[in-house]
Amino acid sequence: MDPDERVDLGIALLERLEHEELPLPAVVDRLETITTNPTLTRTILDEAELRGVIERTDGVVRLTSGGYVRFQEQVIRREGEFRCERCGSSLSTGHFVRLEAGEIGPFGSSCVRKVLGRE
Fold first, then answer.
1. What is the tens place of the pLDDT at every residue in 30-65?
2. Which of 12, 72, 82, 112 can bridge 95 by disulfide, Cβ–Cβ 3.0-4.6 Å?
3. Chain-centre distance of CA 18, in angstroms?
4. What are the CB-based long-range contacts (under 8 Å, 24+) for 24-27?
5. Does one domain contain both 29 and 81?
6. Do 10 and 51 reside in the same domain of the chain?
7. What CA–CA distance (Å, rounded) separates 22 from 17?
8. Could you tell me if 26 and 17 are in contact, meaning their C-beta atoms sit under 8 angstroms apart?
9. Element at 15 (helix H, strand E)
10. Which of 35, 63, 91 is the last residue before a domain boundary?
11. 3-state DSSP percent of the chain in helix, strand and coil, to 5
């Protein structure tokens, strides 16, 4: 996946987080499911701010777009041999999040909730 696709996926993920306000480290933790490259993470945050998706103040990120992932429609379960993108655990069932910009995952059942801010 090229960097532009990762930026679009990161912004799409930010648009769907459950919380209206999060500390910057919590946002970075979620973006690490897209990239662990600090420069690309910064690019995602900068571009999201330019597009009006987020506002950043004093280490706090405020989401300006409303929306959330509908688990029944946008979280797809697949059977197979996977490794969780968040924690690295071995999975026999992968949870993939379908966003407008593409799909992220696989995640375990608890990690997908953490990525989306449900836990």
1. 999 999 999 999 999 999 999 999 999 999 999 887
2. 112
3. 11
4. 24/56, 24/59, 24/60, 24/61, 27/61
5. no
6. yes
7. 10
8. no
9. helix 3-15
10. 63
11. 40, 30, 30
